[in-house]
Amino acid sequence: MDLNTVETYRVAHSRAELVLAPGERVVAGGTWLFSEPAEPAAEHTGLVDLTAMGWPALEYSDAGLRIGATCTIAELADIPRREGWAAHPLFAQCANALLASWKIWNVATVGGNVCRSYAAAGMVSLCVALDGVAEVWTPDGGGYRVPVADLVTGNGTNNLAPGEVLRALELPAHALRARTAFRKIALAALGRSGAVLTGRVDEDGSAVFTITAATAWPTVLRYPSVPDAATLRAAVDAADGYYDDALGVADWRRAVSGVLLEEIRVELISP
Ligand SMILES: Cc1cc2nc3c(=O)[nH]c(=O)nc-3n(C[C@H](O)[C@H](O)[C@H](O)COP(=O)(O)OP(=O)(O)OC[C@H]3O[C@@H](n4cnc5c(N)ncnc54)[C@H](O)[C@@H]3O)c2cc1C
């Protein structure tokens, strides 16, 4: 931990207590926030802890699943399968796409992973694969909802304004009922994901393919029915945002995305 400018730490219990004073920022599991020097350190003088807000981790309804932002990744990975939820394997698959130990899984929150917004954020992969929508609280007491695919803007950046708090993530029932497939690749056996690919076929036959970790922001490809191989490959090749870093170069990320999404396409059309 290297937050040596922090002077106050308070635990919020109500929405009113979530209004941040200058210099304050929220902390959830703290697994990222306490893991490296803050940027820029001098601006952070106080932390506001979300974990006593009492938000239910998982709420079920006919509309789908509402995940409280403070739900831990371990809790979500272990979610019981409900009748009709063909997409259920994606929960554990996306949680396992994170390079993190059991200790991190049990403390890190779904909301913290989405708000950190790394390209390799497994909870972003999950939400994007299932048409997830973020519920955001604004400091004036209002709020708005935005698709997670539109919330994340880059590798570590998002559209949240200062003082805004992610309250929940909603996964619609139609996506939870869909058939899905998943692939992940990393340069090292225990390395951070270089590409995470998902595919989904809804009950009406429409198909959604997503690329995360390989592109700096989520890539979502939608079709009225499962496309042929050439159509999908052309869309993967044309996607923007493949990037270079120590975990993989852009050309490799583009190439493995094409190969693995084709595997997913074939899996989804196989009886
Ligand atoms: C060992 C290790 C391995 C990791 N591996 C990966 C990986 O493979 N892929 C990856 O993407 N990340 C990885 N991370 C970083 C990772 O994203 C997080 O540690 C974790 O998901 C953050 O969750 P948290 O609840 O601990 O968030 P915190 O550390 O508490 O917060 C993270 C950020 O989000 C903000 N925040 C948290 N909750 C909210 C909210 N509800 N509303 C608004 N802002 C909020 C905080 O202010 C902070 O800026 C790893 C971290 C560690 C320590």
Strand content: 25-35%
Helicity level, as a percent range? 25-40%
The helix/strand order is: EEEEEHHHHHEEHEEEHEEEEHH
Bound molecules: flavin-adenine dinucleotide
Write down the domain tally: 3
CATH architecture of the largest domain: 2-Layer Sandwich
- Based on secondary structure, the structural category is alpha+beta
Give the rounded overall mean pLDDT: 95
Principal-axes shape call: globular
Query: Low-confidence parts lasting 5 or more residues at pLDDT below 50?
Result: none
Give the structure's gist in a few sentences:
The protein is of the alpha+beta class and 271 residues long. Helix content is 26%, strand content 25%. A hairpin with a 2-residue loop joins β8 and β9 (157-158).
How would you describe the overall organization of this protein?
The chain has three domains: 8-49; 58-174, Uridine Diphospho-n-acetylenolpyruvylglucosamine Reductase, domain 3 (2-Layer Sandwich), CATH 3.30.465.10; 177-269, Enolase-like, domain 1. Helices cover 26% and strands 25% of the residues. It has nine helices and 14 strands. The protein has helices at 73-77, 89-96, 102-105, 110-116, 122-129, 148-151, 173-176, 229-238, 250-269, and strands at residues 8-11, 24-27, 46-49, 58-61, 64-68, 133-137, 143-147, 152-154, 157-158, 165-172, 179-185, 195-201, 207-212, 219-223. The strands form four sheets. Strands 4-5-10-6-7 form a five-stranded antiparallel β-sheet. A four-stranded antiparallel β-sheet has the order 11-12-13-14, sandwiched between helices. The relative contact order is 0.12. Bound molecules: flavin-adenine dinucleotide.
